[in-house]
């Protein structure tokens, strides 16, 4: 049994300790907002927060999350009212949507550490997340909007 906290709620999972956290979240808990992209921690679609840090869940064994706090896109703001989610819409980021949860989770973790980043810092922070639709300009603009507005990310 692996005990952790997911989106603020205690969870006990009876799964293989080596199961990637991504599959525990999606298949065992039904939290499908976190996406499978590459399985190699290179695209960012699977990004969640592990004790507040942006973490690629596709390569992290669920046992490594034991006793820790995991936040998925569903836990960031269940009603979609997080400042980044609002900025995503305002800047016209949504296209196919596949990368968005990972992008938003990466941005949220980044802005907590650096609430007033430069444009270059935003580009650098978001660099490891791939977007199939190529909306990088809008993604960076959305992150900059939240930083400029001083919204609580």
Task: Provide structural commentary.
With 153 residues, the protein is an alpha+beta fold. The chain folds into 2 domains: 2-76, Roll (Ubiquitin-like (UB roll)), CATH 3.10.20.30; 83-149, DNA polymerase, domain 1 (Orthogonal Bundle). The chain has 6 helices and 5 strands. It has helices at 21-28, 73-76, 83-90, 100-113, 119-126, 136-149, and strands spanning 2-6, 9-13, 47-50, 53-56, 69-71. The protein has a 5-stranded mixed beta sheet, sandwiched between helices. Strand 3 (47-50) and strand 4 (53-56) form a beta hairpin. Helix 3 crosses helix 6 (136-149) and helix 5 packs across helix 6 (136-149). The protein is globular, with a radius of gyration of 15 Å. The protein starts with a strand and ends with a helix.
Helix residue percentage: 25-40%
Average pLDDT, all residues: 95
Q: What's the number of domains?
A: 2
Main sheet, how many strands, which sense, barrel?
5 strands, mixed
In the CATH hierarchy, the third-tier topology of the largest domain is known as Ubiquitin-like (UB roll)
What is the string of helix and strand elements? Answer: EEHEEEHHHHH
Low-confidence stretches: none
Query: Briefly, what CATH class of the largest domain?
Result: Alpha Beta
- Structural class, judged by helices and strands? alpha+beta
**Rg from Cα:** 15 Å
Let me know the number of strands: 5
Tally of alpha and pi helices: 6
User: Beta-sheet strand percentage?
Assistant: 5-15%
